[in-house]
Amino acid sequence: MNGAAPVRILADGRLAAGNRLGGIAGLWARVAWSDATAIDEGALGRWLAEVDPNVASELALTPAPGPADAVAAFARVAAALMASGRSLAIVIDRETTPAGRSALVIVEEGRAVAPERVMAAAADLLAAAVAGLPAAGFRDRVADCGAPPIKAFLRYAYTLIPARLAARGAAARPALGQRGSLVGEGVGARLFLFTMGRGTGALGAAIAARKDACAALLSRFGLPVPRQLPVADADAAEAAAGAIGYPVVVKPADRSGGAGVAAGLAHAAEVRQAFARAAAVSRRIVVEEMLRGEDHRLTVIGGRMVAAALRVPPEVVGDGRRSVRALIDAVNADPQRGGSRSMLLPLVCDGETDRLLAAAGLTFASVPPAGMRVRLHSAANLTMGARPVDVTASVHPDNRAAAVHAAAIMGLDLAGIDFISPDIGRSWREIGGGICEVNREPGLLVHQVAEGGPDMAEACARHILAPAPLVPIVAVLGGGDADAAAQAIAAAMAESGLAVGLAAGRHLVAAGLRLSDPGPGDPLRVTRLVAHPAVEAVVAAVPPAAVVARGFGHGRADVALVAEPGAPDLAAATRIMAAIGAEVVDGSSPLDADLVRRIAARRPPS
């Protein structure tokens, strides 16, 4: 590259929760920078757009942390590489020492698959942009980080609940790969997988995964479901359609997201073609009575219907001038469907689109008259480009009750009920309609995207946290003296009846069980104790310098006991602990029995 690089990374690493960003994990880099390099923000954005439009879009949405120079640009590029559909916190500290000038850059960790590569990639991307190198040669650097290749709506959807939990003060961290999180502390800790958690019954979840089994079960309890027949081949599908009566639906019994679904089939030839498309994605195919009406998603949480959305199928509206293809392209050009934080997905065309166009006497080259609505899919799924409209306040009590009972029968504390109705404001008993599917892991975007809809991320966060008690967490700051003080506090808590997790010296013990120990000062010690389901209180001796350099290991604490007043980095460590909620206590005097009693009194309810 020509000239000096805008920033040079001197050292970098990861920070556990409980650091200068607060209760969230982050990445840090110590960098040197050059004043000789002018950063043209517009040029940087245009160059990144050639590398990956999502990264460029995130860069534009990331606020500049302080003066707009090479350090700030580096921090913003790093945040853009990890963006998860929301702005990430950034802290920059600049200092000048006899050794020279440097800056400490801390960026909240987002959803990058390989965060350890983010800082180096950010420095290389910035340098390449300034040097005007070909953008195509740097696409692999973005791909190495892992976030941008993930569809924008997935990044957004999968972080809705963890982000809201974090905002409520409950640390949520990846535990099962891209979609798993651990939330809560000690005996109140629990795993959840997007919207599946401890209240999701295994049997109900298994039945919900099979549309045929689900319909049969709900039918036994007298709930409104369409008649359904399993079929093994196209001949059987045609016969089943004749027995049920046209129009019908053909769909896989074990797939989601609208894959292989064809609705409104009115002729034998259409049924046979639909069977072939469904058979391409599954061996379990059903022919189903087509309920009359529109597609609605009714979401039930904890025995209550909390949201309802009408899902408008993917369509375009003719203007008398443009072709179907041009109308589709115009809709997909909307930033709401293609930006890095877009919540609506682009319109998708496939064999089902061809069938619907042919049935309407159209092709992609046809110019529909003004006002004509051209449907592109019979299934109203967001993945195909459907548009949701909130109808929560309009749902008739009978329809609401049917959804709640369906979730209860399935044993699901959180369920998405797909309800077909000509008018969701009138009872299914009066005008027909019914339940065509029950989803064990309902997506939230259908409600988050619908204008005026309830905040489903908040509703799910309340539901997940409702039975989750917090445990007393004590940090003892210092060196050798801290180990002795931590052991004394842990012993006093154990005498009060608490199952204690202790990190002190070479001891890492959870309720009497020795754990694999990463070593003193490693924040993973605290993380392991806080997450352990047998622990009712946590006491950890931590060197202040380790808290500053690597983080505490959890985003919350009750007490920070200062056992060694002269310890290095003590002032910075106490500021971090206070920022995550800890009461800073002078522990230089003998252990205060009243303090131990106050801490023990915070034990979670049994």
Distinctive features:
single chain, 606 residues, alpha+beta, seven-stranded mixed beta sheet, five-stranded antiparallel beta sheet, 22 helices, 25 strands, flat
What this model shows, in words?
35% of the residues lie in helices and 22% in strands. By secondary structure, it is an alpha+beta fold. Among the domains are: 144 residues, no CATH class; 47 residues, no CATH class; 63 residues, no CATH class; 128 residues, Mur-like, catalytic domain (UDP-N-acetylmuramoyl-L-alanine:D-glutamate ligase, 3-Layer(aba) Sandwich). About 2% of the residues have low confidence.
Query: N-to-C terminal Cα separation, in Å?
Result: 63 Å
Taking pLDDT < 50 over at least 5 consecutive residues as the criterion, the unreliable ranges are: 148-155, 174-178
State the helicity in percent bands.
Answer: 25-40%
Radius of gyration: 28 Å
**Number of beta strands:** 25
